[in-house]
Structure formats: C-alpha cells, structure tokens
Design goal:
Elements: H1 8-16, H2 24-51, H3 59-66
Helix pairs in contact: 2-3
Length: about 70
C-alpha cells in the first residue's frame, strides 16, 4: 500500500516549504510517516464518530482527531 502513494506530491510540498532539493529516501520516509499519521487520525476520527453514535466520519471528527 505504501508504494501506491505517489512521491511527486510530497516533493511539491517540500519545495513549497522551501527545499531546493529533496532526496528520494527523504520522500520515501515522508510518505511512510504521513501514512502512519493519517492512519492514526482516521482511527481516532472513526472513534469520535462512533462516540457520537454515527457511522459517517465528518469533517469535525477529523479536526478533533488532529488536535
């Protein structure tokens, strides 16, 4: 699954943040970390939706999960 997430958007993010050059290994690590973080956020958001007795995850659930 990790390989399905493209590196080009991550390179664009790094360049927008001010990086002139970004190594392939840095982009791969960024991909792994971002997917791990998003997995935790998604799980927390699902828990919040269930707590609110909903099956649909809403924007508010994601926002709260990030905090």
């Amino acid at each position: 699954m990790v390989k399905d997430f493209p590196l080009l958007p991550l390179e664009k993010i790094a360049r927008k943040a001010g990086a002139e050059r970004v190594s392939a290994s840095a982009l791969e690590e960024m991909r792994i970390v971002l997917l791990e973080m998003s997995d935790k956020i998604a799980k927390d958001a699902v828990d919040m939706a269930h707590h609110a007795k909903r099956v649909t995850v809403k924007r508010e659930d994601i926002s709260l999960a990030v905090k």
